[in-house]
From TrEMBL:
Alphabetized SUPFAM superfamilies for the sequence: SMAD/FHA domain (SSF49879)
Protein name as it appears in the record: FHA domain containing protein
InterPro entries named in the record: FHA_dom, SMAD_FHA_dom_sf
PROSITE patterns on file: FHA_DOMAIN
Highest taxon above the source species: Bacteria
Coiled-coil segments: none
Domain FHA: 1-33
Transmembrane feature ranges: none
Amino acid sequence: MSKEHAALNWTGEQWTIRDLNSRNGTFVDGRRLGSGERGIIAAGTQLGFGTSERWVCSDASPPQLSATTADDQEPIIVSGQQSLAIYAGEELLASVSRDIQGRWVLEREEEVTYVRSGETHSIGGRPWQLRLPEVSATTDVSDGVRTVTATRLRLLVAEDGTVHAQAHVQGEVIDLRRRGHHALLLGLARLRKADQAAGKSDFDAGWINYRKLQDLLDCTRNLINVNVHRARKQFEEHEFIDAGCLIERKQHTGKLRLGVSEVEILSES
């Protein structure tokens, strides 16, 4: 078998395999690819690499984000298909997610930087190399696809201040239950609704800087960042394709806001 037989690639929409001029051939569902030819891989696709042995693709989901560092110290990395978080103990050092335009965004404390796969950035005083899936230029938003930008958020506030959240989207009601990070959503939702009531445009409504938000929520900056990641992660787990848009960050300003414009706040009976 050739030293480099075939190459797998994520296009932003699907997995492909390309034969690298192998001696014994690369087979997709029993058909041999020509040299340099690409084949499409989906769940259930059978692959062969020059022998009678066949491999079956069991999962064709998009790749997860990853980050590596040469340092021997072991950080905690929480990764998914739309987000990445790097922790040192309980401190969130940085996170990566997609913005409303589909660009990858690295967030460190109050700093926002647009990044690409393969780039190296300083995080927590150490160099980290990011591996980020290619983002498709177009997204199918047909029926059944959940997007934050098309969501109506309902926040039910109990007497003790805890918040039960629901996301209404595509005719569905997604029960997000009662979570600690929903207090952040409530605080940001109240700000956005107040600005809307005051006549501010959707473009300008709801923005607040970290220091004021810390005072408003009576919490640390780290807890805000942790809850931003947890809130986005929860929406990602419920298959929202733009979960990073749940909390928007404005570059060079240190400001953030709730990315949902339609919010209902009710007292829970």
